[in-house]
Amino acid sequence: MSDPSEPPALRSDGGSDGDADERHVVTAFLRHRGRVLLLRRSDAVGTYRGQWGGVSGFAEGDPDSQVRVEIREETGLEDDDVSLVRSGRPVRFRDDLADGSEREWVVHPYLFEVTVDADEPEIELSEEHDAFAWLPPTEIVAPGFAETETADGDRDGLETVPELWTAYERVAPTVRSIAADDEHGAASLSIRALEVLRDRAGLLVAERDEYGADPDGEREELAELARRLLEARPSMAVLRNRVNRVMAAATETDADAESADGGAPAVLEAALAGVDRALAADAEAAATAGDSIDGAVLTLSRSGTVREALRRGEPARVFVAESRPAREGIAVAEELAADDALECPVTVHTDAAAAHVLASEDVDRVVVGADTIRPDGAVVNKTGTRAVAIAAAREGVPVTVVAATDKVSTREEVNLESGDRAAVYDGEAAVDVLNPTFDVTPADCVTEFATERGALAPDDLESVVEELRGLESWRER
Length: 477
What we know:
Blueprint: E1 21-32, E2 35-41, E3 52-53, E4 55-58, H1 63-75, E5 82-87, E6 91-96, E7 102-114, E8 129-135, H2 164-169, H3 175-180, H4 186-211, H5 215-232, H6 237-256, H7 264-290, E9 294-300, H8 304-312, E10 314-321, H9 328-338, E11 346-349, H10 354-360, E12 365-368, E13 372-373, E14 379-382, H11 385-395, E15 399-402, E16 438-441, E17 448-451, E18 454-456, H12 462-470
Parallel strand pairs: 1-7, 9-10, 9-12, 10-11, 12-15, 15-17
Antiparallel strand pairs: 1-2, 1-4, 2-3, 2-8, 5-7, 6-7, 13-14, 14-16, 17-18
């Protein structure tokens, strides 16, 4: 069993001694709905013909600029269709050329999120590639677990360019990146957590070829990784529930499987299914909310599920609170205003004006997301939600909370995270600073929860809580 802190794929990275011809290239992994875009190199290219890789090309000058050029040229996706997640340390490796010389490749890896609202973004291949596929990245090292095919139906072998997995690992999500992320919502981070489990399980499956199967060791390593993920964001019930669901499913598979089929393969299959299930649940919750959106709507904070709900509904106008101190509501308002699926005015206002807007404008419904839903139906969400919900109750405006049932917490107490003090005040006066990131909205201020199981009232959550508590049993085994 390899050391999880240093996977074998990373140990091939060495420095250059200057003897080989050195070429710098960029490789971009485009991620969409938990999968990455892989392209098969055509006969029109000079190297690695017929092999699969990411979006790549020679880095002529600045790699950060060149990678976007390659994305446009090789996929047809424009700059506005993708968002940079992170870049990683370059990967170096040597290759023997047909003329007997050596070439040292320096690969600059990048991870981009595809922001196109589609189940599968349209890709326009250049002559450099003749096929593409949206696949879990684990198919690079542990093929056969995903049932997705390429556009031309051919995926035989999936031979990849050298060190493709190494490049992916340099930009893949980690426990640390999830713990440090203050830009994305709980649902998004829960998907990232499942990807961390999936990726590690996939690598352990691949390592069986070299080290042999060790189901007990794999089980122990992946269980420890799952515990670290649970500790990374303790306030996010959806992350906890989705990790628990994967581990519970894998534990059940282990109990029924032959010894060699348990361990990493069970977790890999459960994680792959868990990503798909989670994405479907979030989409179905948005569809439920969309059915009740008609007229003027007020929202706050950044929630991808709420945005999708607005796109599925028929809002006549959308009011967006700016959501201080990070003011993510400004970006939300800009995105909504630019969204062709929303043909309505968008108005942004200060958080302090929310009660005034509800009292003076004809707002028909408040629609917000949730970081966590407590067992009693109280909602933990971005600070400002409580004030909006109380003001809405005063004005008789219904409040819809859009959230998959995985956001229901099994715990009465919820750890409320705080933000950077300097985001509120960075002066020199001797004043205390409060910057709570979340607040708690009472259950009696919530009209309904729009979930993948339909619209639920706060009193309907008891059975959901019991179901989610049952998923925690894997930690006792």
